[in-house]
Amino acid sequence: MIKHLKWLSVVATIGMIFVLLGGALVTKTGSEDGCGDSWPLCEGQVVPSEFTFEMVIELSHRLVSGSVGIVVLILAIIAWKHLGHIREVKFLSVSSVFFLVLQALIGAAAVMWGQSDFVLALHFGISLISFATIFLLTLLIFEADKKLDTESLHIQKKHRIEILALMIYTLAVVYTGALVRHTESNLVCPDWPFCYNNEPLNVIGYNFQQWVQMGHRLSAAILVIWTILLFIKIVKNYKKSTVMVGGWSIALSLILLQVLSGALIIFTMLNLFIALAHALFISCFFGMLSYFILLANRSAYKEKSGQVNETH
């Protein structure tokens, strides 16, 4: 059964990546109204009589989301039944279904009644959390046969707090990025990393969209610097842990790729594939942070149960 669960979990995780990228594609191609204000039908029909490019994008996203939702539900039920004895499995099984339904409802509400840019920007963040719960469930399934050895790992309290703070801050940065998309502020600053002629103090006369764009760039820069500093701490304190050093090396690579793709969005004038890669990198980075939160939670549990000394 574990073998089948592995395949199912991998399909669900990959499917959620397509859901995330599909949502980004809908926004970036302006296909939010591709099916009008009708949901879950398209223009009030199961199969529209006429198709437009925007309709195909929106309808494809709905079909993929619905199919992945069924896979996630099946995965959650089977994982609960066969791996419910693992402490985190039941919580993640419920959470994966809950956040998937929540993001679908937010999307449906936006289609039928419309939402402000600030509310719409929440959608991608909810989708990220949904992806993270499924990604963690997948890792737990692979842990079941000891493919991932984390039993001896203990993360110090100060590092647990910092990892949690970094994850919360990442969600805030993701929100600013989503706000850039929904307010159509992607190309309002022609230069990079600063807005005009790369002059950092030339902020007089910025309009709302330029403040949104530069606010995102500043928050992203802080995220990168913070990740680099935490990576150095992790390597110094957990150099014997393959999971920590290897995992944080992947996380650091992802956030650097995120910055590179963000710059290329400006240089390529919003190339669609670069923009989708930008969404992919931050999704994977958030997934990695979620895994470290799970490991940190285990360390805290061990301390409370007396299995390890807090100063270890």
From TrEMBL:
It holds the Pfam family COX15-CtaA. Keywords: Cell membrane, Disulfide bond, Heme biosynthesis, Iron, Membrane, Metal-binding, Oxidoreductase, Transmembrane, Transmembrane helix. It is an enzyme of class 1 (oxidoreductase). Its EC number is 1.17.99.9. Heme binds at residues 216, 278. Its main location: membrane. It is found in: Cell membrane; Membrane. It is a multi-pass membrane protein. The chain crosses the membrane at residues 7-26, 63-80, 92-114, 120-142, 163-180, 218-235, 247-267, 273-294. It catalyses: Fe(II)-heme o + 2 A + H2O = Fe(II)-heme a + 2 AH2. Belongs to the COX15/CtaA family. Type 1 subfamily. Catalyzes the conversion of heme O to heme A by two successive hydroxylations of the methyl group at C8. The first hydroxylation forms heme I, the second hydroxylation results in an unstable dihydroxymethyl group, which spontaneously dehydrates, resulting in the formyl group of heme A. This is Heme A synthase. It comes from Oceanobacillus luteolus. The gene is ctaA.
